[in-house]
Amino acid sequence: MPSDQQQLFKETHQKYQQTFSTKNETTTTELKKEIKQMQNEKEQLENRLNKMQLKIENDKNVTNNKEKFQQILELTSNLRVSQEEESNLLRNAYDQRKKHRMSSKTMHELQSDKSALEEIFNEISEHVIPNETNAISEDSAQHLIEMWKEKNMQNEKELEHVHNEYKEHHKMLQELLNITHSDTKTDNELSSLRNEINELSHEIGDLENQRDSLLQALDSKLAIYKKRAFDMAKNKTVLLNKIKQIQDEIKDVRTEIMFRCVVFKDEMDKMHINGRRPMSEKEMKEYLVSLQEKKHKYEQCQNNLQRQSHEIGILERTEEILKSRHENLQQYIEYKEKEESLAEQQKQLVSISAMKSEIDQSKGMTLNSLSEVAKRVNAELQLRKNKLVPLIKQFRIKREEFEELQKEYKDKKQIYDTIKMTYEKELQQLQTSIDETGHDISMLNQDINQTQKQLKDKKELLANISSDEKCKEYKTIYENDTAKLLQKSKRLRQEQKIVIEKQGKDEIQKEYFNRAKQLMQIKLEILEAKTQTGTTTNENGADCMIIAGQE
Q1: 6 neighbors 115 (Cβ within 8 angstroms)
Q2: Phi, psi at 171, each rounded to 5°
Q3: 3-class DSSP state for residue 186?
Q4: What count of Cα atoms within 13 Å lies in the side-chain half-sphere of residue 364?
Q5: DSSP 271-339
Q6: Could you tell me the residue ranges of all domains in the chain?
Q7: Element counts in the chain: helices (H) and strands (E)
């Protein structure tokens, strides 16, 4: 029966691990869907830009103002960013809903498993399973259910947060669309705008040439950085898989330790690994929390890098679109370069490259630290597993021995209780008989004293009567009476001797029984002390019973 209970608990734990792992995994189909969605969004953005261009060309009421053109460009970029954020929010909301459904299903399954486990525990607790292991297993099942409840609460909070962000971004989009569709433009403004677009296209061409000349020097460095980033991404995926495996192993070890922490607490304090005590459960939790914080920081840095690269890609796309459709932007870019020196741009590029190198170094350091931490955790887990195997075997052997000793102790205790009851009854009977004989002896002594007094009185009377010759008949009467009294006194003395002899034997027997009672009480205390320490043997119990029978 305990093996069935352990198998059921392991099955529920495996289900929990599978559900937890499937939530975090991303399949290739999902990635393909995301790529298609990005392509569709790209096409939609291109169509919108074409529509805006047609509106600018065909509308008669177009204003001739540089600031409004720049506002339109900013609005398009903001619109693109907001659309991407909206799509990300929708995708996150869908994932959160999916996770919530999966967690609710697993909650129902765990509750059903918990009810089944409780029924098994109630059936087995009276006969087989000890109270301590039953309490531990129930606590572990309750702990898993509480963990799932906390995760469901977190998922609900995240869903609320995602809905709020989605509403805010939707409001921003509506405001941007209202701004884009609000203004009307005249023919003069439209012609001036076209001239400005041509100038800007010329300026953009010049800027692109300068950018190409600057980037040619940086192409080699960028290729190296791209290779490093690719290698780092591969290493990151490998390390994340290892960390997941380590987390699964840690969960298995924690469940095993929960079953055996009560029994092995004293032995774990005595154990030493490399001159120090092994980590307790609290220390292990703190260590895992620190690992999760480091992982969270690493993910934040990675998200920032992805966001920056995404923004750079958006800017490059906008540049390419404007370059392909506006030839006069080159002149506008030359005009802007005259106003703003290229030295500042070069400084910015140098600072960006330095920041990128620092970020790459920090990435390498974090990955190395994570790999070292993973190796340490694996080594410590292996050591603990190797240490726990012989202890578990010893624990099982000790447990079997303890159960056998407990059975023997109960059997001998029953025999001892029955013998003790019989001896106590006999002692009570002997005590009552001794009290009765003592009372009889005291009564006989009183009778003897009275008869002796009567004899003395009658002897005096006989002496007085014998001195008188006239009273011979009285003398014969008194002689007969004295003869009767002497016979009676002899008989009473014989009875007194018998009673005294019997009293001596009864007192000796009473002393024997008192000594036997003291011995039995002392041996009972010794047996109780030994059973408390767990060092009783068969021979001691047998000796106790033999001594009690002899005495």
Answers
A1: no
A2: -60, -45
A3: strand
A4: 9
A5: --BTTBPPP-HHHHHHHHHHHHHHHHHHHHHHHHHHHHHHHHHHHHHHHHHHHHH-STHHHHHHHHHHH
A6: 1-185, 409-550
A7: 11, 0
CB atoms near residue 405 (< 10 Å): 17
Token readout for 310 is 């995404």
* Residue 249: C-alpha distances to residues 22, 290, 385, 471, 500 (Å): 17, 18, 11, 126, 85
Token pair 């029984």: residue:
513
For the segment 207-222, the average pLDDT, to the nearest whole number, is 64
- How far apart, in whole angstroms, are the C-alpha atoms of residue 371 and residue 112? 40
The encoded tokens of residue 27 equal 């399949």
The 10s digit of each residue's pLDDT in 262-293 is: 555 555 555 544 445 556 677 777 877 888 88
Which residue in the block uniquely carries the two structure tokens 């630290």? Answer: 369
Q: Which amino acid is at 265?
A: K
Give the separation between CA 253 and CA 280, rounded to whole angstroms: 12
Residue closest to 162 by CA, chosen among 83, 95, 211, 116 = 95
Please, is 159 exposed, middle or buried when counting C-beta atoms within 10 Å of its C-beta (0-12, 13-18, 19+)? middle
- Confidence class for position 130, pLDDT limits 50, 70, 90: very low
